[in-house]
Amino acid sequence: MWGSKKDHEENGEQASINGEAARSTRSARQSRRSHEPREEPDERTRLLDRPRPPNSDGYLDPDDPAVSPYNLWSVRFLRYFTILFFMISCLWWTLLLVSIFVSPPGMHTRGSGFFDFAYTCLTIGNLLVAIIFFVAPARALRITTAIIGGFLLVDMILIIAVPRLRIEEGWVGIASVVWAVFIAGWCILTDRIVAWGKKEEEERLTGRPETRRTLKEWLAVLAASILTVIFVVIVILMTGTLSIRARDATLGSYGERILVDGDKYAVHLGCVGNISHTDGKKDATILLEAGEDPAEYDFEHWAYAALQNGTISRYCYWDRPGYAWSDNAPSPHSAGMSADALSEALARSGEEGPWILVAAGTGSIVSRIFSSRHLKQVTGIMLIDPMHEDLLHRIASPGRGFMLWAWGIISPLGLERLGGALFKGRTREDRVYGRNAYQSGKYIKAQLQESLVADSLSKNEVASARNIQSSDTPLVIVSSAIECRRDVEWERKQKDLSKLTENLVSWDVVNKAPHQVWRTLDGRTIMEKRLSELIKAAKDTEMPVEIV
């Protein structure tokens, strides 16, 4: 018993000594830790196992950086996928940007290509807001994003339901708007889960959900809300413009739309009047080529008046790719490609020559190329204030090209088109082929395509055409006096075009006539008179037997 008691006392003393040593060791470790730099915690830190200050209740301060929704794997998962979707959208955005200038195989759309680009820009904007303000969820952000998604859903239904829109936008446009709808829903889901994760982590680490926000958080919420409100305005304007396009698609056209270039796109061709014969020979059909505006916009009206007056018996007109009822062609697209599209459209519709070409402005470039490629069928050429190949650099300037591209990028907003429809009474006719046709994305892209290759491909094509043009083809030139007085070089080039063939019927400079000569009475009178003389000269001229 005694020995046992003694042993217990010795053991007690030893335990006391060991306890003192352990406490001394812990004190030393804590002292060293207090002098060491404290590492900033992150989502992988074992937050609740960290040393607590004296008298701590075991919870972290709400402002502690470790109190973050990133601690949850589900939140991190959402962020990783949001970044992945952003990268995919940027890649798609790049492809769409390139396709405006050079159409990749399989990515050509018969519409302008600006709407799908706009939807992708909106998608990237939504993803950027979600990524930048990821840990600052807010109900206002979810509400505005839901509004965006709702209007995008309406756009998707419109594109799929309206046949004309579905054809113009193609699979590229449909995929772009569907992706935009999906991303809007994804951003709403992400913001809601982050808000839930933030609340869960605050309850776990601080003991209660945080109801207040720091100044930094309020600024983040404000910035995100402002951006999404801007997106709401943008998508509302886009939906309005798309609705106008759906409305315009119901406007019927005279003639037919004919697929060309391997059925990649369709062009509009219309013919008016009856085929007539004189002395057993088929009379020539007048083939109109408009200038900077669609042929239906008052140029074709002059031809119809000539038909009613008996000056001509039949005429055909068409819309170059991107004009009026014609689809946009793949990029790049030159004047020679337009001439080939016209040739194919005429052949598919069963139209045959002989032709007398009547062309205005930049359209004269296409007609001259067409003439050189159909020497046996073209029996006369009438050019109205035509563009000379040496002046093509004017429409090919980098500044003009950039402005056309920028105007095309914002064209889906339809600021002018919506304003004209709502406040100025603009009709479908005005927007499709009339005075407001220049506002459509298709027209802007067509102008951009002409600008990009005017001083290269198109210039080379028309220069070659001049070299092989038949020298005895009757030629009429009608120029604008206003343009000639305003621009000496323009007048000099008009004179040069009068030497296009050796059989010049007449060259008139119409006083007080603008570039669109037919918009004045004197201009229409002289044009009709010279056209009658050209028809007579064409009958008297022997057609070429072989192509030089």
TrEMBL record:
<dbReference type="Pfam" id="PF10329">
    <property type="entry name" value="DUF2417"/>
</dbReference>
<keyword id="KW-0472">Membrane</keyword>
<keyword id="KW-1133">Transmembrane helix</keyword>
<dbReference type="InterPro" id="IPR029058">
    <property type="entry name" value="AB_hydrolase_fold"/>
</dbReference>
<feature type="transmembrane region" description="Helical">
    <location>
        <begin position="143"/>
        <end position="165"/>
    </location>
</feature>
<feature type="compositionally biased region" description="Basic and acidic residues">
    <location>
        <begin position="33"/>
        <end position="52"/>
    </location>
</feature>
<dbReference type="InterPro" id="IPR019431">
    <property type="entry name" value="DUF2417"/>
</dbReference>
<feature type="transmembrane region" description="Helical">
    <location>
        <begin position="114"/>
        <end position="136"/>
    </location>
</feature>
<feature type="compositionally biased region" description="Basic and acidic residues">
    <location>
        <begin position="1"/>
        <end position="11"/>
    </location>
</feature>
<keyword id="KW-0812">Transmembrane</keyword>
<feature type="region of interest" description="Disordered">
    <location>
        <begin position="1"/>
        <end position="62"/>
    </location>
</feature>
<feature type="transmembrane region" description="Helical">
    <location>
        <begin position="80"/>
        <end position="102"/>
    </location>
</feature>
<feature type="transmembrane region" description="Helical">
    <location>
        <begin position="171"/>
        <end position="189"/>
    </location>
</feature>
<protein>
    <submittedName>
        <fullName>Mitochondrial integral membrane protein-like protein</fullName>
    </submittedName>
</protein>
<feature type="transmembrane region" description="Helical">
    <location>
        <begin position="218"/>
        <end position="238"/>
    </location>
</feature>
